[in-house]
Amino acid sequence: MGFLASIFTWWNGAGFSTRLFTRRHGREVGRDAAGNVYFVHRKDPRRRWVIYEGSNDASRAPPQWQSWLRGQIADVPDKAMPAARTFEKPGLPNLSGTGETYRPAGSLSRGGKRPAATGDYQAWTPD
């Protein structure tokens, strides 16, 4: 992303003023697997924020880091959270509007064919 884009757009990552504020007042506390960088204010540790790798979308931060950002856990997730269990899947960003969006059977985007009614349904009619 170019310098001018960082000044005039907020949706493509941190803008110029956010980067300046972070440099002056922030202390990096961690990074996640997606490349997002998490900061805490040097003077007020209750102030926390993230600079996303890529577009600004809160669903790009994993649940553990979401808990830290909201102050639900005091320490960073690596120290405060228990180890991941074997059945846990990694988090995914919001897939709405992409080709990976969930489309159940019968949805118009999958052809719109639903299974036939089984006969146990009777439509309501006004009297």
UniProtKB/TrEMBL annotation:
InterPro entries from the UniProt entry: NDUFA12
Stretch list, region Disordered: 86-127
Domain of life: Bacteria
Name of the molecule in the record: NADH:ubiquinone oxidoreductase subunit NDUFA12
Organism: Sphingomonas swuensis
Source taxonomy: Bacteria, Pseudomonadati, Pseudomonadota, Alphaproteobacteria, Sphingomonadales
